[in-house]
């Protein structure tokens, strides 16, 4: 049972339901993100696919005062919900196409990336891992079969898992937790 929810969680959930946004990560993923974020003091964090901010609030729960979080979303309606309910100077909401953002980003690398959109996960995976510091963590969910997977999505999942296994510089664990999480760390 996960009973302690981030402060703004319920309000954002109601707003998400009104928009019929049903792609949010679940509570288990949120709790795991909070825990992992908290393990990196003064960390730099990246979320690809803000949605309405339901995972963002979990990540913020783990963030210390010297940390920062960039979160990228291309749907203005969705990111505006997150902006409305999350007022926190440590987070930067970026309305942008994730493909362009990943390819053009040239700032400091990140300690943890939660890749929750096509760009950064099924597309531009190597480019996204390049944005991770050595020792950094890369997290993805929805890796176990889900009722909302479109036809043929299982092939994408399989190909991504094979690709992760092929990379000599990554350690990873596939977890039967939440919707199926993979935690990847970059070791060189
Ligand atoms: C799985 S949802 C994110 C859910 C959110 N992280 C959460 O846990 O509540 C994926 C999001 O990625 C966004 N997205 C899809 N394509 C994108 C792109 N090219 N650039 C940026 N965001 C994109 C979608 O609009 C959607 O909000």
Short characterization:
The chain is an alpha/beta fold and 188 residues long. Helix content is 36%, strand content 23%.
Q: Major sheet, described briefly?
A: 7 strands, mixed
Rg estimate, integer Å: 15 Å
Q: What's the tally of helices?
A: 7
- Weakly predicted, low-confidence segments: none
- Percent helix, as a range, is 25-40%
Query: Mean of the pLDDT scores?
Result: 97
- The succession of helices and strands, N to C, reads HHEHEHEHEHEHEE
Describe how the helices and strands are arranged:
Layout: H1 9-18, H2 27-38, E1 44-48, H3 54-62, E2 68-73, H4 76-85, E3 91-95, H5 98-104, E4 110-115, H6 125-129, E5 132-140, H7 153-166, E6 170-175, E7 181-186
Parallel strand pairs: 1-2, 1-4, 2-3, 4-5
Antiparallel strand pairs: 5-7, 6-7
Helix pairs in contact: 1-4, 2-3
The structure holds S-adenosylmethionine.
